[in-house]
Amino acid sequence: MAMNFDPFRELDRVASGLFESRQGPRVMPMDLYRQGETYVLTADLPGIDPGSIDVDVDGQLLTIRAERTLRGAEGVKWITRERSGGSFLRQLSLGDGLDVERISASYENGVLSVVIPVSERAKPRKIAVEHVSTDGASESPQLSSTAS
To answer: Considering the entire predicted model, what is its pTM?
Structure first.
């Protein structure tokens, strides 16, 4: 078996291992976008046991926690081990106008999706304009629907 040894790649691997903080939780890469009347957060969590994922809301703070446990047989001599295990954590401050009671989450193919709906009170709506006649009497408009 032919093996190519690249000293620069090896130096990079060793240096990143030295400078990487193994103490605290790791940050998970995520995307956040608005689609219609919901915000959608997607976070990459490959190799995570779905049972270790915890999504909770405390007031206006959304917290996502997950744990990756690396498996390895005892007595194994590692040649390369670049995948990191440990805790992952992400916290987001949610603004007003979101319906925190209806947040939902799903995990598929290593991607966590969290759907955060906009609250009804924050959605755009039509305001009825009263017509005031010159004699001071007001007339209520006849609208079939006040929501858009």
So the answer is: 0.66
pLDDT one-digit tens code per residue, 94-133: 988 899 999 999 999 999 999 999 987 766 778 888 888 8
Alpha-carbon distance of 30 to 110, in angstroms, equals: 12
Structure tokens at 33: 């976008």
Rounded CA separation 139/147 (Å): 20
- Please say whether the beta carbons of 66 and 52 come within 8 A: yes
Residue with tokens 């009263």: 130
